[in-house]
Structure formats: structure tokens, C-alpha cells
Specification:
- The protein has 287 residues and is an alpha+beta fold.
- It has 2 domains: 172 residues, Sandwich (Jelly Rolls); 104 residues, Arc Repressor Mutant, subunit A (Orthogonal Bundle), CATH 1.10.10.60.
- Helices cover 37% and strands 22% of the residues.
- The chain has 9 helices and 13 strands.
- The strands form 2 sheets. Strands 1-2-4-9-6-7-13 form a 7-stranded mixed sheet. Strands 3-10-5-8-11-12 form a 6-stranded antiparallel sheet, covered by helices on one side.
- Helix 1 runs antiparallel to helix 2 and helix 7 crosses helix 8.
- The longest helix has 20 residues.
- The radius of gyration is 20 Å and the shape is globular.
- The termini are far apart.
- The N terminus is likely disordered.
């Protein structure tokens, strides 16, 4: 198996390297570059980073993006901004048609300032709404960057105008709070990863703690120290993120509730309302 594609022995998942990132490197002359990649549901793009900012989203299928401090589940209507030099890994939760944008400067950066001046609100990863216009612009940009025998003045002009529109759309894009924080402590990180993989397997913290060989009291303390929340609050965020990916498939509320381990749609609705202060129908519509 080539070095760009390695299968993990313990999980059977295929780990991929990024597709020749230097080939798509943005520059002042070409500030926005794009590429497409089809990922099967067992595939991971290994942890890596770039010197430039990146926007990642899927045309179809759900992807999970991990950074050192958080994880993000992205249905097709959501994209993740990743700042320059921020390590990240991508997992296909299901078969995903991925699109990646590389940006020479962050949206809203002052091009006249010395160096790459990034506004403070773009220094951290952020989830953005993908409007129909932004989606189509990214599709067109990726098509422009497919291998071609030669560049033409017409293609260069088209790339210039599409890039300008993409940057304008990104500045206008609605920001959404969909990330789930991750801890640095190895034991708690291992437990959190297990919950992310199968949040419905256990409801009680004691059962999860037993899986990592720690006491419920110790794990509860680590949640407060590492994540500033209780286990129940953190798990609710995981369930909400998972629910959003299921809702993106237009699944009925009862099926979503059952998939997440709830005995009834009303029990699931009560959790959502308690967590975000609104019923699921409104939460899914707004988020």
C-alpha cells in the first residue's frame, strides 16, 4: 500500500495523506485555490497543517474534522474555517464528496497591512453556513483547478472573479457554534473519542469511566478541569452535533431519537430544549 494510503491495523480504516498541497498553494496572485476529493466512509486524512488558511466542507456526506482542542461534525450545509498552521485531521463519517479551499489570506484580512493581518475573530476554527451561492462558487473554482493542458487568459480572469466572490461570501457567512471541545488529558481524551464514535452506547458516566479504568469521581473532576463542563453537558453537545448530521439527511425526529439512544422522540426533544432553550424543529432550522 502506498505511503499516501495506509490502513490502521486495529480499526481497518484507511489513513490518507493530503493530496499534493503545494500544487494547490495559494498566493497573492492566486489568492483562492480549490480541490475535490472523494472519501469512502472508512477513510481518514491524517493530521497535518498548512501555511495558509483552509475551508473544508462536503458536497454530500458528513465529515468530522479534528483539531487539537475540538472536533466538528459537518453536514453538507456547513463548512469549517481552519486558520494557518492549525493541525487538523478529516474523517469521512459516511461516503463524502469533499471540497477544500486554500486561502492566501483570511476573509476580511487587511491586504494593505504588513504581512498577513488576520482579524482576531478568524484566528480560531469556526463553523460557517454554506449558502447555495457559496456552494456553487466553490464547485466552479474546483473545476477550474482540475488538471488542464494549459492556462488561458479567459480561465485566469474567471478564477479572479470567482475568488473575489468567494471571499465576499465568506465574510458574510453566518457563524455557527457546532464544535465540541476536546481535552488534553490522555485518559479523558480516550473516553471522549469513544463517546464521539458511539454516544448512545452508554448514558451513565460510570459505565464510560469503567472502559478507561478510572473512577467516576476522577473522570467527573477531569471534565470540570479540562473542559469546564460536566459530563452530561459535554455529552449533550455531542448528541446535538450528531443529531444535526442526521437531520441533514431529512430523517424524521423519531428515527433521530432512536439512533441516539432515546426511548422516544419526546425524551429527545426535552434534551434539546433543555440544552439550547428551543425545540428541535426550531434548533435544526436555525443551526
Amino acid at each position: 500500500m502506498p505511503t499516501s494510503q495506509r490502513r490502521t491495523r486495529t480499526t481497518g480504516r484507511v489513513g490518507l495523506q493530503p493530496l499534493d498541497p503545494q500544487r494547490y498553494a495559494p498566493s497573492a496572485q492566486r489568492p483562492v485555490r480549490a480541490k475535490a476529493r472523494l472519501m469512502e466512509h472508512w477513510m481518514d486524512i491524517n493530521a497535518h497543517h498548512h501555511d495558509w488558511g483552509q475551508l473544508v466542507f462536503s458536497i454530500s456526506g458528513v465529515v468530522r474534522v479534528n483539531t487539537p482542542n475540538a472536533t466538528f461534525l459537518l453536514p453538507p450545509s456547513r463548512a469549517l474555517w481552519i486558520p494557518p498552521l492549525r493541525e487538523h485531521a478529516v474523517t469521512a463519517v459516511e461516503r463524502a464528496d469533499l471540497r477544500t479551499l486554500y486561502l492566501h489570506q483570511a476573509p476580511g484580512a487587511n491586504a494593505q497591512a504588513s504581512g498577513d493581518s488576520i482579524r482576531p475573530d478568524w484566528l480560531e476554527p469556526r463553523v460557517l453556513e454554506v449558502t447555495p451561492l457559496l456552494r456553487e462558487l466553490v464547485l466552479q473554482m474546483a473545476r477550474l483547478h482540475e488538471p488542464r493542458p494549459e492556462e488561458t487568459h479567459e480561465l485566469e480572469a474567471r478564477e479572479h472573479w470567482i475568488a473575489a466572490l468567494i471571499l465576499d461570501e465568506l465574510q458574510r457567512a453566518k457563524r455557527l457554534r457546532l464544535g465540541v471541545d476536546l481535552p488534553q488529558d490522555k485518559r479523558l481524551r480516550r473516553l471522549c473519542e469513544a463517546i464521539l464514535q458511539s454516544p448512545q452506547r452508554h448514558a451513565a458516566l460510570a459505565d464510560w469511566a469503567a472502559e478507561v479504568g478510572a473512577s467516576e469521581r476522577t473522570i467527573s473532576r477531569l471534565f470540570r478541569e479540562q473542559l469546564g463542563s460536566s459530563y452530561a453537558q459535554w455529552r449533550s453537545q455531542v448528541l446535538l452535533a450528531k443529531a444535526l448530521t442526521l437531520a441533514a439527511r431529512q430523517l424524521p425526529m423519531g428515527l433521530i431519537a432512536a439512533e441516539l439512544g432515546y426511548a422516544s422522540a419526546s425524551a429527545f426533544s426535552a434534551m434539546v430544549t433543555r440544552t439550547v432553550g428551543m425545540p428541535p424543529s426550531r434548533f435544526f432550522a436555525e443551526a
